[in-house]
Amino acid sequence: MTITQASHTPTAARGELTLQDLLVIEDDAAILSFRCPRTGLLLWPLIRVVVLRMIMSDLLYGASLDGIGDARPVSRAAWSTMLRSVVHNRGRRPVAEVCIVSTAVANQLVDGRWYNRLVDAFALQHPAQTVSLEEPFEWRWQMPRHHANVLFLAPQLAAGAIIGRLRVSAAARVIAAELIDFVLARALARLAWVCDPMRRGQLVEMLARKVASLPSQYAAYCGMLDMIRPKLLLVTGACYGPLSPLVAAANRRGIVTAEYQHGAVSRGHDAYNFAPLVASSTEYREALPAFFLGYGSWWNEQFNAPVSKRVVGNPHRERQLQHIRRTTTDPKRILILSDGIEFTLYLEQARAIATAVGNRFQVILRPHPLERTAVHGSYGAIVDDVVIDQEQDLYTALASSHAVISEVSTGLFEAVGIADKVFVWDTPKARFSYPSHPFRRFVRVEELVEMLTDTHAGELAADAVDAIWAPGWQQHYSAFLESVGIHPVPWPSQSDASHR
What is the mean pLDDT of residues 62-71? Predict the structure, then answer.
């Protein structure tokens, strides 16, 4: 089913930046010549998204989104979590047909145990065959778990960072500088974008450290895969690049690799769209998963990554929809979703909307998970007439909302079929990220107010909902496992129930 896209003027006619404009910097076969001399792994995947987002931050955003220069001192809590992770991992040598790599940013406390909303449904579907490997977030110790067969990647990632700092050599810096200068020269020639010397130096140092740690990191991933012996490796954000050594290690071993969708994917998403030369490169495919498991058919049509696309659905969404009650919907509630980068900009917009609607609607601004802790600490529960959402679960927040508004948040799509209306704030950033989408747009607050009082503005048809959110994830996931040679088995004995 094809969803009718919201009408809009093509970005080229507006003279605005598009992702295709950015991707020309990698559309040269020479970019595939930069490799780690010891492992043979491509280096561009390790720094690709960082470079692209550095350019995007200058041309689209009012804040940095490249991840450079945001390192924080290691806290006492971080050291404690690291030590606990080492103790937890020690002596555990799990063997599993399915190995899932996830991030702790998705953990939620459910009935006294931590539940990873991205992967635990997959893991608990076939728990006896599945082990999870978890990357840290904010260095919190989150135990016990609903899916207990989990190992923590914090010690390994920390070791890689230390090795990168201690073993970085002149040779590594030379290799890094050659790649960075090649890319920056193309950005200058094709985009007229100039990288200042300080940021150029930061890019070179970041990549040099990755080059220095790559052999030991790759060896560690190989050892881990040889221990677990999976038939399938599921990785969050596998197309982004930083985990390409792990993906390549699995691909080289004949392990089936796949990425499960964890957020919005669009024609403007830098991690999932590639220049024609890269997209057609058999060499680059070694750094990418073989499969992409999408929420629905609509998402799988939005990007050109050279992967086999399957529809699986969204376990967390289906689980939440079974529990939330639409009877709590508040016809006056407007929920605005921040993007995790420019909260102050969203607060300014929320204030403008609150002023325009007066007492006809209540305006709630929801921080992105990546900024929630900082926002709650800085702003509290209310700013002027804008309520700062304190609800942990997004779906509970959506279920009580009449209208949902954002620029680029995945929550716009998660609101489909839950909230009554969904609107996109039409900005250059939104048009870059979502060149096509099924939602109504607004530029001025006055337009939004008018649509809020229009009975049908912002609604979507039922078939559009199914194209975005395919139902029946259990059947889809089990069918995918069967297709790659994995057959469900029960827990070996009742005594293993404690590991669920």
Answer: 59
Mean pLDDT rounded to a whole number for the chain: 89
Question: What end-to-end distance do the CA atoms of the chain give, in Å?
Answer: 38
d(CA 43, CA 20): 21
For residue 268 the two structure tokens come to 């403007």
- Cα–Cα dist 260/238, whole Å: 9
Match 């970005």 to its residue by tokens.
Answer: 11
> How far apart are the C-alpha atoms of 427 and 450, rounded to whole Å?
19
CA angle 126, 132, 137 (to 5 degrees): 140
Residues above pLDDT 70, as percent of the chain: 91
Token digits of residue 390: 């304190």
**What amino acid is encoded at 209 in this protein?**
R
85-99 mean pLDDT: 93
Distance CA(130)–CA(148), nearest Å, equals 10
| Single-letter code of the amino acid located at 348 | E
Cα 449 to chain centroid distance, Å, stands at: 32
Instruction: Name the token pair of 438.
Output: 């099924």
Q: Contact 311/341 with Cβ under 8 angstroms?
A: no
| Residue 55 tokens, joined | 């350019």
Determine the Cα–Cα distance for residues 421 and 332; give it in Å rounded to an integer. Answer: 12
Give pLDDT tens digits for 354-396: 999 999 999 999 999 889 889 999 998 888 899 999 998 888 8
pLDDT reported for residue 4? 33
Q: How many other CB atoms are found less than 10 A from the CB of residue 114?
A: 20
Q: Strand 386-388 relative to strand 382-383: parallel, antiparallel, unpaired?
A: antiparallel
Contact 290, 309 (CB under 8 A): no
The backbone region for 205, taken as left when phi is positive above 0, alpha when psi lies in -120 to 50, beta otherwise, is alpha
Write out the two tokens for 91.
């002596």
Encoded amino acid at 345, one letter: L
pLDDT at 79: 86
- Does residue 427 carry a pLDDT above 60? yes
Q: Number of helices (H) and strands (E), helices first, in the chain? A: 20, 16
Residue 437 · residue 266 · CB < 8 Å: yes
What is the identity of the amino acid at 89? N
- Rounded distance, CA 330 to CA 327, Å? 9
Nearest to 294 by CA among 270, 327, 266: 266
